[in-house]
Amino acid sequence: MSRLAATFERLTKTGRKALIPFITTGDPRPDFTLPLMHALVKAGVDIIELGVPFSDPMADGPVIQRASERALAHKMSLKKTLVIAEEFRKTDQQTPVVLMGYLNPIEAMSYEGFANAAQRADIDGVLTVDLPPEEGEECAALLKDRGIDTIFLLAPNSTDERIQKMSALGSGYLYYVSLKGVTGAGHLNAADVENKLKQIKAITAMPVSIGFGVKDAETAKTIAAMGDGVVVGSALISKIESNLDNLERAKSEIIELLSAMRRAMDA
Fold it and tell me: Which residues carry out catalysis?
């Protein structure tokens, strides 16, 4: 059983939901990412989404775009992201790590080269924003052969047919984008999310995590009641951006927010 499957199974047995932070690797500098990952685990997170910085992150709002720019200024890359993930795994054998990024850096390595590198780094899942299931079979098969889950994004307008297609090809969990737009934009409409989750859950038995608008503990609690996991990204990266001159304070504020979310979700 994969780490992702084991994590969701364990959470389901205890009646809890997955707390999944997203951070951009190398933001604001490469040596901050590894200690932050370990701090996230201590705050009670269940899965870490490790963002691969990219020069044209089409699905990301201004906060995560600026995080990518800061990381790229330090020459952060997909290969360097995998090195950090491999270092994390040396002292943490339990927490699943999911790479989230875009197709271009993967294609530059070749699908097989990337799959081999991800396996060496002991990556648990890969979410490629701009790789739809219609074009993802080759990469997904290579990852599956190496025990790595392929995770797909579902949108508010995803049809039953598309949900079925992503469920059939993907594994680990499905990521439901709860807002029309980029990361960090707008406010969640809980009723709309609940209705969509009912549609998704009627089609697939896969866990469904929800992101793109989770800003505080109250939102996390509301969303946790609907799906299997809560993804938070921009709200965390904003803490880094507000404290570029004091990264220990940034880390403390991130931990404080995640701890509050964990308490609210478990209440």
Answer: 49, 60
